[in-house]
Every structure is written in C-alpha cells, then in structure tokens.
Amino acid sequence: MSGFFSALSTTLDPLCGPVGIFSLFGAGSLVACGDAGWGDEIAAGVRMTISLAIVTLPVGLIIGFLIALAAQSEDKLLRLAAGIYTTIFRGLPELLTLFLIYYGLQILIQALLSWMGYEERIEINAFVAGVTALSVVFSSYSSEVLLSAFRAIPRGQYEAGDALGLRRWRTMRLVVMPQLIRIALPGLTNLWLILLKDTSYASAIGLAEILRQTGIAARVSKEAFFFYGIACLLYLILATLSSVGLGFLERNVRRSEGRR
C-alpha cells in the first residue's frame, strides 16, 4: 500500500512528475529531474514544507483553542497560565523556540533516562521537533485571534443555549463554533501564510525543506542567485495558492452564514 501511495505521489508531482514543470522545461538544466540536476531534491523539499505546515496547522489550532478557552476562564490560575504561555512564545524568536525544543528536549529526555539508568544517546526526530516548535508558536498567535473572536460573540448566545436546555458543549458546537469560525477565519488565514514561511526555520535543524534543499544546491553548483530565486518563486506559489483557496473558503463561510 505504501508503494502505491509513493508511486501516486511521484506521478502527481507538479515538479518532477511526468507532466511536472522541471520534467517538461528543465531537461538538461540545473533543475533537471534525476541524477542530471537538482529537480528531485527541490521537489522533495516542497513536499516536506507542505507536510510540515499541514501537520502543524491542526495541532497549533487545537492548542490555540484550548489556550483561548483558558484565557477567558473564570479560574484565575488558568487565565494566568494562558497569559504566560502567549507572552513567552510570542516574545521569543521562532528560531530560538525551535532550538530550545530540538536541543532542550533532547537534554531533558537524556537526563531523565540517565536518572532511570538508561545511558544510550537519544536524538529527537527533526520533523517532530519542527512540528512541535511551529505548533507552539502558531498556537500562541492563533489563541489571540480565537480569543478576540470569542469576545465578539454576544454573551446572549450562551444564555440562549442555556434557555433552550442545551448543554454547554452543545451550545459551543451548534451556536458558538459556526460564528467563531466566520469571525476568526481572516486572522487565521494570515497566520497560515506566516506558518508557510516559518517552515524555512526548520532548515536550521537539518530538515530537508525548500530552503535547505535549494541552499545545498546553491553551495554545490555556485549558482546561489538562481536557486534562491527558485526558492522565492516556490514560496510565492504556495502563498498564492493558499490565498486563493482560503479566500474561496471564506466566501463560502460568509455565504452559508448569510443563508442562516
């Protein structure tokens, strides 16, 4: 089954697939696919960038939603914890957060295992570290967007749900969440575009995404302007496609809200 999906992804690859851009127009150039050029490596970097962003998005949204709930909780300790969380991870540079998680967690886990008598060296997977760091940063910003959306929903919406005999979780799912999505979507769209660009930080811990792959190609071939130009173009294409798709989603959400 894994072989089937691998073959399918290769066939549908927009860069090095049978009808890919590099396959059709890059033959004999530095971006040729196969052993003749760097097309395969750059295509793999694009897949890694997209995978990193797509995996990070739901994780960051879930954490951000929980932080937003904590920030408006009646419990002072929860509000304090949410405030400390967002202050720290919105204040730290993304690259520093990545280093702290990648190296700091390794040291912490190694120290814990050593205390338990296990002396083998432990190394955290770079993809897991990248997802964790980007999720933490994304959640700290998305929690503020979601918190603002929560505050834009009148308290009467909750009271109406209580008056109808709905449990609080049903009121949240049926009444609050549809409005929350509509209000928060523009802000979350901007955060998604920022997340796409922030995936480039993962190159610092050896993750083979767009910037790392084009950087290696630039150093080996001595064609820095050419390959970094390709990296710019790829990021712009991803951002444009995301903007078009999310714009379509936002219009549909508003249209469905209008029909209500």
Characterization of the model:
This is ABC transporter permease. InterPro entries: AA_ABC_transptr_permease_3TM (IPR010065), ABC_transp_permease_HisMQ (IPR051613), MetI-like (IPR000515), MetI-like_sf (IPR035906). Its main location: membrane. This protein is an all-alpha fold and 260 residues long. 77% of the residues lie in helices and 0% in strands. The protein has helices spanning 2-11, 21-25, 39-71, 76-91, 94-115, 126-152, 155-163, 168-198, 210-221, 224-259. The longest helix is centred in the last third of the chain and has 36 residues, at 224-259. The chain starts with a helix and ends with a helix.
The largest pleated sheet is described as: none
Mean pLDDT: 85
Distance between the termini: 43 Å
Helical residue percent band: over 70%
Radius of gyration: 22 Å
Low-confidence stretches: 1-5
**Shape verdict:** flat
Structural classification: mainly alpha
- β-strand percent reads under 5%
Number of strands: 0
Helix and strand sequence: HHHHHHHHHH
The tally of helices reads: 10
